[in-house]
Amino acid sequence: MLAPLTERVKDPSATLDQRGEIDTPISGGEIVGDQAVDVRNYVKSIVLALSAQLTPQAKNYEVFLTADYAQFASTVAWTIRFITQIPPEAMAIARELVQK
Question: Looking at the 3D structure of the chain, how many domains does it have?
């Protein structure tokens, strides 16, 4: 799922509503409430499907872990991308952050 880098989805019941605040890495720029329903629902389906992989019913939930489902769940506001490999450039950045 790729939202613009300046926007983050947060659970409004767990964070203060910071709409209109200066956008910093730790405040402002959040998408909350009704605007974030689609992405929260997608995350719930992925968490359920991943959890189900540890049960005898795993096969029934595999469809939710596919690129086709990601495309189906995409909306105009939230384009969801399903990747199977992390690009080398992104992996290098992740390694650098872990080492800090």
Answer: 1
- The CA–CA distances, whole Å, from 18 to 1, 5, 29, 46 equal 22, 16, 7, 27
Could you tell me the residue range of the domain that residue 16 belongs to? Answer: 8-99
Q: Is the pTM of this model over 0.90?
A: no
Distance of CA 37 to the CA centre of its chain: 12
Alpha carbon 31 to its chain centroid, in Å, reads: 12
Asked if residue 13 is part of any domain, the answer here is yes
pLDDT tens digit string along 34-91? 777 888 888 889 999 999 999 999 999 999 999 899 889 888 877 888 787 888 998 8
Residues 6+ apart with CB under 8 A from 85: none
**Residue 84 tokens, joined:** 């199977």
> Residue 65 and residue 47: Cα distance in Å, rounded?
10
* Residue 1 included in any domain: no
Considering the domain boundaries, does residue 12 fall inside one? yes
